[in-house]
Amino acid sequence: MICFLRRLWNSISFRLTLNYGLLAILTTLILSAFIYTQFIGALRTEYTRQITSTAQRLEVAYEEGGRNALAAAIELTLSDRIDADREIYLLLDEHGRKIAGNLDASLPLNSTRPDVYEADVIHDGMPTRGHLKVLPLADGETLVVGHDSSEIGDITSLIGQATATAILLAVLLVLLGTYIFRRELAHRVSHIRQTTQLIGAGQLSKRISAPTGEDEFTLLNRDVNAMLDRIELLMKSARHISDTIAHNLRTPLTRIIGALRAAQRPGVSMTDVLEANQHAIESIERLNVLLEKLLQIAELEAGIQRRSFRPCELDVIVADVLEMYGTLAEEKGVSLLRAKLDNVTLHGDANLLASALANLIDNAVKFAASRVVVDVTRQNRTALVTITDDGAGLPPAEYEHLGKHFYRSDPSSEGHGLGLTSVKSIVGLHVGTLGFSDARPGLRVTVSLPLDPKSKP
């Protein structure tokens, strides 16, 4: 039993419905109390008004005709049978003897209270509760005017029964809601748990079904699926990168080992040994450069260097890079042109942005036929850097592969295929995008970066 109660309490569906149930019961109690106080208050106010009005009328009759006229007025009022079973009257002489009325004179009266008060009385021989007003008269008589208030008790009992019924219905509805809600929640959550267990077991292609709609679970399922898509993509990318790294390391290491072993054979001259050592050192240095680039890309993708961000002027960075590559472009017979340089302020790392732009401009100068055009513009809250060359360009089918680890459009070219990967990582670190398009002729590279939020529009 204790285990069942503990398991029930650990259920979020039970706790939620319990909270809502308690809220419903509390609301019912507050509403019932409000209705009771308002209704009973209005009823008591009406009793007081009627009693005061009747007492004033009877006092006038006494002043005009004395005791006999007052007794006659009381008897006439009781005989008209208009609410006679609820009205209370009593006229006592100066000695406390009953002259007229329907109230038992044996019960004590509070003649010192000038207002209407509530007391237990015997009305027409029946004990009840009444609202009374006691008026001492001029010749020593006492007039009591009142109203039977037993209906207040009836109304109180009725409201109590209605409240108890409402609470019972609320409890039943809470239990029913708990059952329905728990089944629905268990169904939705169990599907998510089954899918995540399959994914945890290695089936990364599994996804949570997300039906049409905008409820919380559907939105959660979509977010989880988007996260799983990203994780699967990263896993595939990591697997591809690790395979490529292994290939890029295995081949030169095999060559280094083979060359060094060959240099250890008997009869090898010292010149050949030194040459083999030099080739090994150069190969290891190239591997070291490769590993440093991979480490830098990993740090960029992890966002570690975002901590050094500060406002920087993109147009100044582009101008400095263009000046640095001006001589190289002239040597290759390429014109390096500035089409437009708008004043643009970004929140980022100036050195990283300069490195990325230098890489793009270096590629453009390398593959251009005669000219490279660079411009910096701003559109709304975005800065655009466009680098266009007039070279042979690339087939549009290759655009989606540019920026991937170790991808080279020309496998015979030098390098490791990490230049554009580094550029893409730097742009991504600055929450930007890197795009490629056909310049006809040549290739157009567009870097889109968000402006500094503090910069002027």
UniProtKB/TrEMBL annotation:
This enzyme's EC code(s): 2.7.13.3
Chief location category: membrane
Histidine kinase domain mapped to chain residues: 244-453
Keywords tagged on the record: Kinase, Membrane, Phosphoprotein, Transferase, Transmembrane, Transmembrane helix, Two-component regulatory system
EC category name: transferase
PANTHER family: HISTIDINE KINASE, SENSOR HISTIDINE KINASE YKOH
Name recorded for this polypeptide: histidine kinase
Protein source organism: Bordetella parapertussis (strain 12822 / ATCC BAA-587 / NCTC 13253)
Lineage, highest ranks first: Bacteria, Pseudomonadati, Pseudomonadota, Betaproteobacteria, Burkholderiales
